[in-house]
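Reminder: ligand-aware prediction takes two inputs, not one.
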Amino acid sequence: MNIARVIVDVPSFQTNRPFDYRIPDRYEGVIQPGMRVIVPFGPRKILGYVVGLTDETDLNRLKPVEELLDLQPVLTTELLGLGDWMAEQTLSFRISALQVMLPQVLKAKYKKEVWRNEGEDLPEQFERLFAGRDGIDFTEFERSGISYHQLQKLVQDGSIEIEYIVKSKESKKTTPMIQPAKSPIELEEALVDLTKSAHKQRDLIEHFISEPEPVPKKLLVESFQTTASTIKTLMDKGLLEQFNQEIYRDPYKNRSFERTEAFELTEEQEEAIAPILDVLEKKQHEVMLLHGVTGSGKTEVYLQSIQQVIDQGMEAIMLVPEIALTPMMVERFKGRFGSRVAVLHSALSAGEKYDEWRRIQRGEVQVVVGARSAIFAPFTKLGIIIIDEEHETSYKQEENPRYHARDVAVYRGEQHHCPVILGSATPSLETFARAKKGNYRMLSLTKRMNEASMPEVELIDMREELHAGNRSMFSRVLKEKIEDRLAKKEQVVLFLNRRGYSTFVMCRDCGFVIECPHCDITMTYHRKQESLKCHYCSHEVSMPSECPECESDSIRYFGTGTQKVEEVLQQLLPEARVVRMDVDTTRRKGAHEKLLGEFGRGEADILLGTQMIAKGLDFQNVTLVGVMTADSLLNIPDFRSAEKTFQLLTQVSGRAGRHTKPGEVIVQTYTPEHYSIELASTYDYHQFFNQEMQLRKAFRYPPYYFITLVTVSHPNQLKVQEVTQKIVAFMRSKLSEESVTLGPTPSALTRIKNRYRYQCMIKYKHEPEQRKLLKRILQYYEDELKQDQLQISIDFQPYQLM
Ligand code: ADP
Ligand code: ZN
Ligand code: ZN
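Here is what comes back for the chain with zinc ion:
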C-alpha cells in the first residue's frame, strides 16, 4: 500500500473528500490511518489526516506526502469512522469533524524532539545518535539516515518517545531524575572504595542502597544538602545516572485527595445498579436512563459501575456539564480512583489538555471525567459511558460540527458493545419518552439518602405584592427570610435568569403574557415596529396598550439584570455582604473559583447569580434559596421553556439544605398557576412530563417531531430575507406533506453584531432526503458563503432557538 488517502485542512465542498498522495519510500510501512501529514496542496503545504491506505488510484501522477507528523496514530480507526458519521449527521466538513475530536495542540504542526525513555537499551545506531543525551531534535534523526521504520518500532515498544514542542509555555515539562546505575551490592562495594572525607557521596550512595527508586534531582539536592557536582561525580563513576521524566501539568497537583471507599448500597441503589452490572458482564450495548432525584445516590451508582469496568480491565468515560466540573465533583472521582482519572475541562490551558489527552492515549488512565468533548477520549477498550445531568443543553455543541454528546455516546457505545448510562433528576423529554417506550431501560431512584426530604418550596405571587402596594422586586416574605438568615449567620443563594433575554411583554397586574396561537411560544417584542412577533412562524400583532386579559395598563416589557438586583439588595439590606456571579464578574480565568471560594469560606452572606450557580454547588451553610422571577425563564421564546423552567427550578431548589440544616426555597412569580412552576414546587416530574407531552404533541414539537433550524445572517437585511425566502420555498417544494416548513422569520435575537438573522424551521417526522437537500442549498451559496458576508447555519435537533 503505497498511496495515502488524506483529508486536507481546507474546509470547503470541493475538498470535502480524501485526496490521494504517494507514500515516499522513507515512510513506506510507517504511515497508518489516523496519522497527520503535511501534503502539497496547490501552491501550499498543508496539514492533513490519513484516513486510509490503498494501492489503487484514478490519477496517474500523484504528489508525494511531504512530511509525516506522527509515528503513532492520533485518531483510532473507531474515531475515524466516528468522524465520517458525524460529518454526515451534522452536515459538516470532514476535516472539522476530525479536528473536533483532538486537542487544540494537534491541529497544527510543531517542532518535534526524540526522547529516549529511562533504562531502555537502544540499538547501536540509536546510541550513537543520542551520544549520551536523553533527547535530540527530530531533524537530527532525519539527517542520521536511520529509517523511520526503526524509529517507529522503538516508539511502539515505548523505548523512545516523540514529543511535540508546543511553544515555551505550553510544551511538555520534564524534570531531571537521579537513580542508581548499579545494583545495591555493587553500590555497597563502591562505598568501601570511598575516601573517609567523602561524606556527601556516602550519604547519597547509602540512600540509593536502601531506596533504589528514582528521585527528582532538585529534591535530592535539597534533602541531602548536597550539590550538583557531588551527584555529577557519582555519575562519572558510573554509580548514579540521570534521566528526564515528564511531569504532567496536573491542575489538581497541589491538592491531595482523600481516598474514599465504596458505600454499601441501599436497596434502591442495588436495584438500579444490578442491570448495569449485568450488561457490563455480558459486554452488551444498551442505553439506560438513571432517573433519580438529587441526592438519591446516582453518583455512587456511577462510581461503582465504573469500578466494575476498571476491574474488567476496561475504560470509562464520565461526562458532566462544564459548569458542574467543580473541584467537588472532581474530588469524588479522584478520591475513588486516584491517578487512574484524567480530567478534561475548559479551564485547562491547551498544554494541560494535551497532557491529559496523552495520558488517555498512552493508556495511563482508565477513567476520563470531562465536559462535552471528553466524549472523544481516545480509549480503545471502552467499557461504559455515563452522562450525568443528561438534559443539560451544554452537551450540544453550538458551532460546527453541531454534534450532541449523547448521540456520539450512543454511537461509541454501539461500536464498543458497552452500556451508555444517562442520569438526571429531570431528564429531557426526548430521553424520558424513549425510556417509557422501552427503547432505553429505565432505572429509578426515588428516595434521597438518609431519609432527607427535598426542601420545602413556597411560591410567592408577585401580582399580590403589587396589589398590596409593594413595587419592589423583593417580596415581603423573601426580604424577611433573608434578614432572618443574616441574623442567624446562615447563607442565601439568590437566582436570576440570565439577562439579555427580556424580549417579552407581561402584565404586572395579572401575569398575562401574549403567546402565539399557532406555536405556543411567547411572542417577542420588537421595539422599532412596536409590535409582537412569533419568531417561529412570523405571526404578528401590534403592541397592546392595555392588558387583553384584565385591561390594566401595567403591561410592559419585562426583565432585570443581576447588577440591578445587586443595587436594590444593597439599598434594602446594606449590611449584607453580596457576591455577584454572572458573565461580567466571571470573565477572567479563575474568577469563578475565586468567587465561589469566598462564599464557601463564609466571607459573604448572599450569592447572587445566573444559571451558572444553579448546578453542582454544595454549601453546608446555605439554608435559603430565592428565585427572583421564575417568569423570565418561562417566557423565553422557545418551545422548551416550560421544560427548562421545571429543570432549573428543581436544580436551584436542590442547592438548599443539603446537609444537617433544613433548607427552604422561595420562588417569586407572576404566574404561580403555571404547571411547570407548580409541579416543580412539588417535585412532580411524572405529572410534568405528562402535561408537557400533550402540548408537544398538539403543536408538533419534539419528541413527536424532529426539528431542523436554518439560520441565515448577513449585514444587509433585504439580502437575509431574500435568501431565507428562497430556502423556505425550496424546502417546501421538496419535502413531504407531513412536514411543516416555517419562515422566513426574524430570529428572536434579530440583530447580533450588526448582522441580521432570519430563520426557517422545519418540523418533520421522516425526511430521508433532507440532508441532501440542505447540502444542495449550501453548495448553491458556497461562493457567497466564502466571499461575501453571508452565513447559513444548519442545526439538526437545535437547542438554541433564539
Ligand atoms: P446524586 O448524584 O443523586 O445527587 P449522590 O451520589 O451525590 O447523589 O449522593 C448523595 C449523598 O449521599 C452523597 O453525600 C453520597 O456520598 C451519599 N451516599 C450515596 N450513596 C450512599 C450509600 N449507599 N450509603 C451512604 N451514603 C451514600
Ligand atoms: Zn393583565
Ligand atoms: Zn407562531
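The pocket of zinc ion (ligand 2) is lined by residues 507, 509-510, 512, 547, 549-550, 552 (CB under 6 Å). The mean pLDDT is 89. We will return to this case in the review session.
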